[in-house]
UniProtKB/TrEMBL annotation:
Species of provenance: Sphingobium baderi
The keyword Protein transport appears for this protein: no
Name of the protein: MBL fold metallo-hydrolase
InterPro entries named in the record: LACTB2_WH (IPR041516), Metallo-B-lactamas (IPR001279), RibonucZ/Hydroxyglut_hydro (IPR036866), Sec-metab_biosynth-thioest (IPR050662), WH-like_DNA-bd_sf (IPR036388)
Pfam families registered for this protein in UniProt: Lactamase_B (PF00753), WHD_BLACT (PF17778)
GO function terms (MF aspect): hydrolase activity
Protein backbone atom coordinates (compact mmCIF):
# COMPACT_ATOMS: atom_id res chain seq x y z
CA UNK A 1 0.00 0.00 0.00
CA UNK A 2 1.24 3.49 -0.76
CA UNK A 3 2.51 5.89 1.92
CA UNK A 4 -0.16 7.59 4.06
CA UNK A 5 -1.62 10.81 2.68
CA UNK A 6 -1.15 14.11 4.44
CA UNK A 7 -4.67 15.65 4.55
CA UNK A 8 -3.06 19.01 3.75
CA UNK A 9 -2.13 17.55 0.35
CA UNK A 10 -5.78 16.66 -0.32
CA UNK A 11 -7.71 19.96 -0.41
CA UNK A 12 -11.46 19.70 -0.90
CA UNK A 13 -13.36 21.34 -3.73
CA UNK A 14 -10.37 21.61 -6.09
CA UNK A 15 -9.78 19.61 -9.27
CA UNK A 16 -6.50 17.70 -9.18
CA UNK A 17 -5.30 16.29 -12.52
CA UNK A 18 -4.11 12.69 -12.22
CA UNK A 19 -3.67 11.71 -15.88
CA UNK A 20 -4.56 13.05 -19.34
CA UNK A 21 -8.08 11.69 -18.89
CA UNK A 22 -8.63 11.71 -15.12
CA UNK A 23 -9.26 14.49 -12.61
CA UNK A 24 -10.25 14.20 -8.94
CA UNK A 25 -12.34 16.34 -6.59
CA UNK A 26 -12.33 15.52 -2.87
CA UNK A 27 -15.62 15.83 -0.96
CA UNK A 28 -15.60 17.52 2.47
CA UNK A 29 -16.65 14.38 4.39
CA UNK A 30 -13.60 12.99 6.23
CA UNK A 31 -14.29 10.37 8.90
CA UNK A 32 -12.83 7.19 10.37
CA UNK A 33 -14.63 5.32 7.57
CA UNK A 34 -13.96 7.69 4.63
CA UNK A 35 -10.37 8.73 5.48
CA UNK A 36 -9.82 12.18 3.93
CA UNK A 37 -13.23 11.99 2.23
CA UNK A 38 -14.92 10.58 -0.87
CA UNK A 39 -13.02 11.14 -4.09
CA UNK A 40 -15.17 12.06 -7.09
CA UNK A 41 -13.51 11.44 -10.45
CA UNK A 42 -14.02 13.41 -13.66
CA UNK A 43 -13.08 11.36 -16.73
CA UNK A 44 -12.61 12.73 -20.24
CA UNK A 45 -11.55 15.82 -22.17
CA UNK A 46 -14.09 17.14 -24.68
CA UNK A 47 -16.94 15.53 -22.79
CA UNK A 48 -16.78 13.81 -19.42
CA UNK A 49 -18.18 11.24 -17.02
CA UNK A 50 -18.42 11.77 -13.27
CA UNK A 51 -17.74 8.73 -11.07
CA UNK A 52 -19.07 8.59 -7.49
CA UNK A 53 -20.49 12.11 -7.12
CA UNK A 54 -20.42 11.66 -3.33
CA UNK A 55 -22.56 13.18 -0.58
CA UNK A 56 -25.34 15.69 -1.24
CA UNK A 57 -23.28 18.74 -0.28
CA UNK A 58 -23.97 21.93 -2.24
CA UNK A 59 -20.34 23.06 -2.19
CA UNK A 60 -19.14 19.68 -3.45
CA UNK A 61 -21.70 19.60 -6.26
CA UNK A 62 -20.61 23.09 -7.29
CA UNK A 63 -16.98 21.94 -7.22
CA UNK A 64 -17.79 19.00 -9.51
CA UNK A 65 -19.48 21.31 -12.00
CA UNK A 66 -16.48 23.67 -11.86
CA UNK A 67 -14.10 20.74 -12.39
CA UNK A 68 -15.76 19.93 -15.73
CA UNK A 69 -14.77 23.35 -17.07
CA UNK A 70 -18.10 23.72 -18.83
CA UNK A 71 -17.70 20.49 -20.78
CA UNK A 72 -20.83 18.37 -21.18
CA UNK A 73 -21.30 15.56 -18.66
CA UNK A 74 -22.35 12.43 -20.55
CA UNK A 75 -22.93 10.24 -17.51
CA UNK A 76 -22.97 10.29 -13.72
CA UNK A 77 -21.77 6.86 -12.58
CA UNK A 78 -22.04 5.29 -9.12
CA UNK A 79 -19.99 2.31 -7.93
CA UNK A 80 -22.49 1.56 -5.15
CA UNK A 81 -25.14 3.24 -3.04
CA UNK A 82 -23.55 3.98 0.31
CA UNK A 83 -24.42 7.50 1.38
CA UNK A 84 -20.92 8.85 0.85
CA UNK A 85 -21.04 7.82 -2.84
CA UNK A 86 -24.39 8.30 -4.59
CA UNK A 87 -26.63 10.95 -2.93
CA UNK A 88 -25.16 13.82 -5.01
CA UNK A 89 -26.12 12.04 -8.22
CA UNK A 90 -29.70 13.36 -8.39
CA UNK A 91 -28.96 17.00 -7.54
CA UNK A 92 -25.97 17.00 -9.91
CA UNK A 93 -28.14 15.52 -12.67
CA UNK A 94 -30.72 18.24 -12.05
CA UNK A 95 -28.06 20.91 -12.58
CA UNK A 96 -26.29 19.50 -15.64
CA UNK A 97 -28.99 17.34 -17.27
CA UNK A 98 -26.88 14.16 -17.36
CA UNK A 99 -28.22 10.64 -16.88
CA UNK A 100 -27.45 8.67 -13.73
CA UNK A 101 -25.84 5.38 -14.75
CA UNK A 102 -24.19 2.55 -12.87
CA UNK A 103 -24.99 0.14 -10.08
CA UNK A 104 -28.46 -1.17 -9.39
CA UNK A 105 -30.54 0.25 -6.53
CA UNK A 106 -30.21 -1.81 -3.39
CA UNK A 107 -33.38 -2.93 -1.60
CA UNK A 108 -32.98 -5.04 1.53
CA UNK A 109 -35.60 -7.21 3.17
CA UNK A 110 -36.89 -5.75 6.45
CA UNK A 111 -36.95 -9.05 8.32
CA UNK A 112 -35.23 -7.88 11.49
CA UNK A 113 -33.07 -5.04 12.78
CA UNK A 114 -32.32 -2.90 9.77
CA UNK A 115 -28.80 -3.10 8.39
CA UNK A 116 -29.12 -0.61 5.52
CA UNK A 117 -28.84 2.70 7.40
CA UNK A 118 -25.73 3.54 5.38
CA UNK A 119 -27.47 3.06 2.03
CA UNK A 120 -28.94 5.75 -0.20
CA UNK A 121 -32.57 4.71 -0.49
CA UNK A 122 -33.34 7.61 -2.87
CA UNK A 123 -30.91 6.45 -5.59
CA UNK A 124 -32.77 6.09 -8.90
CA UNK A 125 -30.55 5.36 -11.93
CA UNK A 126 -31.66 6.10 -15.47
CA UNK A 127 -29.67 3.10 -16.67
CA UNK A 128 -28.35 0.11 -14.73
CA UNK A 129 -25.03 -1.33 -15.85
CA UNK A 130 -24.24 -5.02 -15.65
CA UNK A 131 -20.88 -6.74 -15.96
CA UNK A 132 -19.19 -5.80 -19.23
CA UNK A 133 -21.52 -2.92 -20.14
CA UNK A 134 -19.82 0.23 -21.43
CA UNK A 135 -20.29 3.99 -21.34
CA UNK A 136 -18.24 6.03 -23.78
CA UNK A 137 -17.44 9.58 -24.81
CA UNK A 138 -14.90 11.26 -27.05
CA UNK A 139 -11.60 9.50 -26.38
CA UNK A 140 -12.73 7.50 -23.32
CA UNK A 141 -14.51 4.23 -22.61
CA UNK A 142 -15.64 3.02 -19.19
CA UNK A 143 -16.51 -0.65 -18.77
CA UNK A 144 -18.42 -1.98 -15.76
CA UNK A 145 -16.89 -4.79 -13.72
CA UNK A 146 -19.22 -6.48 -11.24
CA UNK A 147 -17.43 -6.74 -7.88
CA UNK A 148 -19.93 -7.77 -5.18
CA UNK A 149 -18.68 -8.22 -1.64
CA UNK A 150 -18.47 -4.84 0.07
CA UNK A 151 -22.04 -4.46 -1.17
CA UNK A 152 -24.01 -6.77 -3.43
CA UNK A 153 -24.48 -4.03 -6.04
CA UNK A 154 -20.85 -2.85 -6.21
CA UNK A 155 -19.29 -2.09 -9.59
CA UNK A 156 -15.79 -1.04 -10.56
CA UNK A 157 -15.22 0.91 -13.78
CA UNK A 158 -12.31 0.22 -16.13
CA UNK A 159 -10.99 3.13 -18.20
CA UNK A 160 -9.88 1.14 -21.21
CA UNK A 161 -7.71 3.84 -22.79
CA UNK A 162 -5.44 4.08 -19.74
CA UNK A 163 -5.73 0.56 -18.26
CA UNK A 164 -7.03 2.24 -15.10
CA UNK A 165 -9.68 0.90 -12.72
CA UNK A 166 -11.95 3.01 -10.53
CA UNK A 167 -12.40 0.68 -7.57
CA UNK A 168 -14.93 2.50 -5.38
CA UNK A 169 -14.82 0.85 -1.95
CA UNK A 170 -13.90 -2.62 -3.22
CA UNK A 171 -10.20 -1.75 -3.04
CA UNK A 172 -9.23 1.39 -1.16
CA UNK A 173 -5.86 3.11 -1.01
CA UNK A 174 -5.69 3.38 2.77
CA UNK A 175 -7.52 0.45 4.38
CA UNK A 176 -9.31 -2.81 3.73
CA UNK A 177 -13.04 -2.64 3.00
CA UNK A 178 -15.69 -3.36 5.61
CA UNK A 179 -17.74 -6.44 4.72
CA UNK A 180 -20.99 -6.13 6.67
CA UNK A 181 -23.65 -8.87 6.44
CA UNK A 182 -26.36 -9.43 5.44
CA UNK A 183 -25.59 -7.52 2.24
CA UNK A 184 -21.81 -7.64 2.54
CA UNK A 185 -20.55 -11.11 1.68
CA UNK A 186 -17.02 -12.40 2.30
CA UNK A 187 -17.34 -15.24 -0.20
CA UNK A 188 -18.37 -12.81 -2.94
CA UNK A 189 -15.67 -10.36 -1.87
CA UNK A 190 -12.88 -12.93 -2.23
CA UNK A 191 -14.21 -14.01 -5.63
CA UNK A 192 -14.27 -10.38 -6.74
CA UNK A 193 -10.73 -9.87 -5.48
CA UNK A 194 -9.61 -12.87 -7.52
CA UNK A 195 -11.19 -11.25 -10.60
CA UNK A 196 -9.04 -8.18 -10.01
CA UNK A 197 -5.93 -10.28 -9.42
CA UNK A 198 -6.50 -11.94 -12.80
CA UNK A 199 -6.59 -8.57 -14.58
CA UNK A 200 -3.68 -6.43 -15.80
CA UNK A 201 -4.79 -2.94 -14.77
CA UNK A 202 -1.91 -0.47 -14.51
CA UNK A 203 -3.39 1.75 -11.78
CA UNK A 204 -6.33 1.88 -9.38
CA UNK A 205 -8.25 5.03 -8.49
CA UNK A 206 -10.11 4.23 -5.24
CA UNK A 207 -12.89 6.30 -3.70
CA UNK A 208 -10.81 6.73 -0.55
CA UNK A 209 -7.05 7.04 -0.33
CA UNK A 210 -4.30 7.57 -2.85
CA UNK A 211 -4.02 6.01 -6.28
CA UNK A 212 -2.50 2.52 -6.30
CA UNK A 213 0.31 2.10 -8.83
CA UNK A 214 1.03 -1.60 -8.16
CA UNK A 215 -2.51 -2.93 -7.99
CA UNK A 216 -1.88 -6.67 -8.27
CA UNK A 217 0.55 -6.56 -5.37
CA UNK A 218 -2.01 -4.72 -3.27
CA UNK A 219 -4.81 -7.15 -4.16
CA UNK A 220 -2.59 -10.12 -3.39
CA UNK A 221 -1.70 -8.58 -0.04
CA UNK A 222 -5.34 -7.84 0.81
CA UNK A 223 -6.38 -11.38 -0.02
CA UNK A 224 -3.56 -12.66 2.17
CA UNK A 225 -4.73 -10.38 4.97
CA UNK A 226 -8.24 -11.88 4.80
CA UNK A 227 -6.79 -15.39 4.92
CA UNK A 228 -4.72 -14.40 7.96
CA UNK A 229 -7.82 -13.00 9.67
CA UNK A 230 -9.69 -16.22 8.95
CA UNK A 231 -6.82 -18.14 10.52
CA UNK A 232 -6.95 -15.90 13.59
CA UNK A 233 -10.65 -16.64 14.03
CA UNK A 234 -10.14 -20.38 13.75
CA UNK A 235 -7.24 -20.33 16.21
CA UNK A 236 -9.23 -18.19 18.65
CA UNK A 237 -12.14 -20.64 18.62
CA UNK A 238 -9.78 -23.60 18.96
CA UNK A 239 -8.08 -21.97 21.96
CA UNK A 240 -11.14 -20.49 23.70
CA UNK A 241 -14.02 -22.70 22.65
CA UNK A 242 -17.41 -21.25 21.74
CA UNK A 243 -17.10 -17.46 21.79
CA UNK A 244 -18.94 -14.25 20.96
CA UNK A 245 -17.76 -11.81 18.30
CA UNK A 246 -16.91 -8.92 20.70
CA UNK A 247 -14.39 -11.15 22.46
CA UNK A 248 -12.76 -11.97 19.12
CA UNK A 249 -12.62 -8.30 18.12
CA UNK A 250 -11.06 -7.28 21.45
CA UNK A 251 -8.16 -9.66 20.88
CA UNK A 252 -7.72 -9.50 17.13
CA UNK A 253 -8.04 -5.72 16.71
CA UNK A 254 -5.81 -4.52 19.54
CA UNK A 255 -4.38 -1.13 18.66
CA UNK A 256 -7.17 -0.35 16.19
CA UNK A 257 -9.20 2.82 16.80
CA UNK A 258 -12.07 1.74 19.07
CA UNK A 259 -14.48 3.70 16.86
CA UNK A 260 -13.84 1.03 14.21
CA UNK A 261 -14.52 -1.97 16.45
CA UNK A 262 -18.18 -2.14 15.43
CA UNK A 263 -17.20 -2.32 11.76
CA UNK A 264 -14.51 -4.87 12.64
CA UNK A 265 -17.17 -7.01 14.26
CA UNK A 266 -19.18 -6.96 11.05
CA UNK A 267 -16.17 -8.20 9.09
CA UNK A 268 -15.57 -10.95 11.67
CA UNK A 269 -19.21 -11.97 11.25
CA UNK A 270 -18.71 -12.05 7.46
CA UNK A 271 -15.74 -14.38 7.95
CA UNK A 272 -17.77 -16.61 10.29
CA UNK A 273 -20.64 -16.86 7.82
CA UNK A 274 -18.16 -17.84 5.12
CA UNK A 275 -16.62 -20.43 7.47
CA UNK A 276 -20.11 -21.76 8.26
CA UNK A 277 -20.83 -22.19 4.54
CA UNK A 278 -17.59 -24.15 4.23
CA UNK A 279 -18.36 -26.36 7.24
CA UNK A 280 -15.58 -24.99 9.46
CA UNK A 281 -17.60 -23.02 12.06
CA UNK A 282 -21.19 -22.83 13.21
CA UNK A 283 -23.40 -20.41 15.17
CA UNK A 284 -25.01 -21.26 18.50
CA UNK A 285 -28.43 -20.07 19.64
CA UNK A 286 -26.90 -17.69 22.21
CA UNK A 287 -24.95 -15.71 19.60
CA UNK A 288 -21.64 -17.47 20.12
CA UNK A 289 -19.73 -19.37 17.45
CA UNK A 290 -17.92 -22.70 17.65
CA UNK A 291 -15.64 -24.80 15.52
CA UNK A 292 -17.20 -27.66 13.56
Amino acid sequence: MNAPIDPADMPTGIRMTLSPLVGRVLAPNPSPFTYTGTQTYVVGTSDVAVIDPGPDEANHIAAIVAATGGRPIRAILCTHTHRDHSPAAAPLAAVVGAPIIGCAPLTMEDDGPRADAAFDAAYRPDRILTDGDQVAGEGWTLQALATPGHTSNHLCFALLEEKALFTGDHVMGWSTSVISPPDGDMTDYMRSMQRLLDRDDAIYYPAHGDAVDNPRRLVRGMMGHRKQREGQILRFLERNGASAIPAMVAEMYKGVDSRLHGAAGRSVLAHLIDLDQRGKAAPLDDGRWRLC
